[in-house]
Amino acid sequence: MSYVFISYHASAEAYVRQLAAQLMEARFNIWLEDSRATTQVAEAAINSCGAFVFTMTQHAQPADTVMRELALARKASKPIFPLWISGDKWAMFSATSLLDVRDGNLPSAEFRAKLAEMVPVQTEPGRNVPEALPRSNEATGEVPQTMLMRPPAFRQLTNVLRQTLAPATPEKKSDGDGQ
Q1: CA 18, 20, 24, 28 torsion: positive or negative?
Q2: Which domains does the chain have, with CATH numbers?
Q3: In the predicted model, what is the mean pLDDT of residues 121-132?
Q4: Rounded Cα distance, 135 and 130, in Å
Q5: Is pLDDT of 129 > 60?
Q6: Residue 31, number of CB atoms within 10 A of its CB
C-alpha cells in the first residue's frame, strides 16, 4: 500500500486536517502522524511512503520532530512536496519547489496530479493508514492473513506500530526459586 506521509507542526493541525480530508476524498491513502508515534514508527512510515508532504510554518523550523522527519525523507530520497502555510520562506526550498498556501486555500488539482505521479490513487476514497492497520487477535496472538500478504517493509512497519501502540503488560516477578 502506497501512501502520502504528511509532516506538520501542531500549529498547522487545523489546516492539515482539511488537507488530509481533501487527499482522502481524492482517493489517496495518507499517513497522518500520530502524536503517540515513536521515532522508530515515524522513520519506518517515512521509509515506506510514496511521497512526503511537508508543511512549513514559523513554528515548524525550530521543531526537532518536524526537522527530523524532513531529514529522514531527504535521506530516503522521498519526493518532497513542501506547502508554505505561514512564516518566512525557508532557504532550503526554492520558490519553484514549494506551494504557497498562506491564504489558507487547499492545494489545487495540479498539486494532486503531481502527487499521483508518485502515489497511485485508490478506486475508492483513501484512508489514514495508521487507523486502517489490521490488529492481531490479542487473545490468541493470531495475525490476520492480509497482514501476512503485505510487502516486507509494510509488515515491518505494522509490527513496529503494534509494539509501540500496544498497552504495556506488567512483567512477571520471579519468587526467587525460578518459578
Answers
A1: positive
A2: 4-130 (3.40.50.10140), 133-163 (no CATH)
A3: 84
A4: 11
A5: yes
A6: 24
